[in-house]
Specification:
heterodimer; A: alpha+beta; globular; B: 6-stranded antiparallel sheet; 4-stranded mixed sheet
Chain lengths: 202, 226
């Protein structure tokens, strides 16, 4: 009887240990995006790796629910056949500030299906392109899983250019607007200071 | 008949509000972003005005419809043959049937006089084989490590690249286009931008004059077998 109880306790402790390991290994920040477009990703989970040698990595994991993937495909496959895109804006598009600070260097995606990409001058000098548009392959976007991409930037005026922000939006080719999903604020040395929605960035 | 001053003032006030509302609406409509759209025999297009007044042009093709895709491939091949006897620099987007080694892509660019602005390499996750892509916004000159860390969580997931799958660039001479069209590794040599620039100049010249046009042209690379 004593031995049986011991096994039960051992089992409970083992279970708690496994749960603890699982919990600590997946305890990353994520948040529901701003914006109310039915086709946009529901959750976002971002990482901000700022390196002292002047390189910044901005990871974005996006999560579409089943309803949202269905809306995305429906909008793409039926009249007026929208082409959806993510607009990764390393500046403040509303005020036209934080210009020429982060210049796109490369882009990588893991399981985020795309058909193309464009670099644009968001604001400031046209020599420095701070906006990346990622054109989605709508029918290949999976629901209920995290789809990751990473944009690497070269930092400019590090620790001398003032505080700034980057923004993350969703749009398509048949509208004059976009759906603003969130932003990350940084200090003059590109260290992240906050995000909106709160908890978006690790 | 005499109208009381108070009534007259009320009517005038209502009229003024109506005129102001109308003007405001007209003004809003006038300053709304430029939006153009149209179709060609093989694709649809839209033109959106940017905050900086430049234009973003999107080419739209149903890549999941085999018939629509084949039509698009054929139209580009036919247009390519026609363009290959013209002298102007030709913007192209090349999609390969399979990923090709970076060295082969460099040789191809040299042989065809292709000036590369960006290129995409494709591969798979080291953990679970999921598809991935890596885009460099530069020429093909620099070396690209074939294993790239894409994991900020410390689980050491890497994107293992197989080769170059898409190239954006400009051909300096038309003979290079003929050479590309004959290359069995090239699945699509896309010259839609040339066609669309001509079309917009003919149909909407006043709307595009003096503006920078940024083109978004889809590649079917994700759906190919790699």
């Amino acid at each position: 009887m004593k031995r049986q109880k011991g096994y039960i306790w051992l089992g409970i402790l083992g279970g708690l240990f496994i749960l603890g390991v699982l919990f600590t290994s997946t305890a990353y920040a994520y948040a529901a995006y701003h914006g109310n477009w039915a086709e946009q990703p529901y959750y976002g989970n971002h990482w901000w790796n700022n390196y002292s040698w002047g390189v910044l990595e901005w990871y974005a994991d996006d999560y579409w629910t089943t309803d949202r993937v269905n809306a995305l495909r429906n909008g793409h496959n039926n009249f007026p056949w929208r082409e959806y895109r993510i607009e990764q804006e390393a500046y403040n598009p509303g005020a036209g500030t934080s210009c020429d600070r982060l210049v796109i260097y490369s882009y990588s995606a893991m399981d985020l299906p795309v058909t193309g990409w464009s670099q644009l001058n968001g604001c400031g000098s046209s020599s420095y392109l701070e906006e990346l548009r990622i054109e989605l392959n709508e029918n290949s976007v999976s629901a209920n899983t995290w789809l990751r991409h990473l944009v690497t930037y070269t930092e400019r005026n590090r620790c001398s250019g003032g505080n700034g922000e980057v923004n993350y939006s969703f749009s398509h080719n048949r509208t004059g607007s976009d759906s603003w999903m969130g932003k990350i604020n940084y200090n003059q040395c590109f260290d992240k200071t906050s995000s909106d929605p709160n908890g978006l960035v690790n | 008949m005499r109208i009381p001053k108070q009534k007259l003032a009320t009517v005038l006030l209502v009229l003024m509000i109506a005129v102001i509302t109308l003007l405001a609406t007209v003004q809003t409509a006038y300053v709304a972003p430029l939006y153009l759209e149209g179709t060609t025999e093989s694709f649809r297009y839209t033109v959106q005005e940017e905050r900086n007044a430049n234009l973003y042009v999107t080419v739209s093709v149903n890549l999941d419809d085999p018939a629509a895709l084949q039509k698009y491939l054929d139209a580009n091949r036919q247009r390519g043959r026609q363009l290959s006897v013209k002298a102007n620099p030709i913007p192209v987007r090349i999609t390969f049937l399979q990923p090709i080694p970076l060295n082969e892509a460099r040789v191809l660019a040299q042989e065809t006089g292709l000036s590369v602005s960006s290129f995409a390499m494709v591969g798979h996750s080291s953990l679970n084989g999921r598809k991935g892509v890596h885009v460099e916004f530069s020429s093909l000159d620099k070396d690209v490590p074939l294993r790239r860390n894409v994991d900020p969580t410390g689980q050491a997931e890497e994107l293992v690249l197989k080769g170059v799958m898409v190239i954006y660039g400009e051909l300096k001479n038309p003979q290079g286009l003929a050479r590309l069209l004959d290359d069995p590794r090239a699945y699509l040599v896309d010259t839609s931008e040339v066609h669309l620039r001509e079309l917009l100049a003919q149909k909407h010249s006043s709307a595009i004059t003096g503006k920078e046009l940024v083109f978004s042209v889809p590649s079917p690379f994700w759906n190919l077998d790699w």
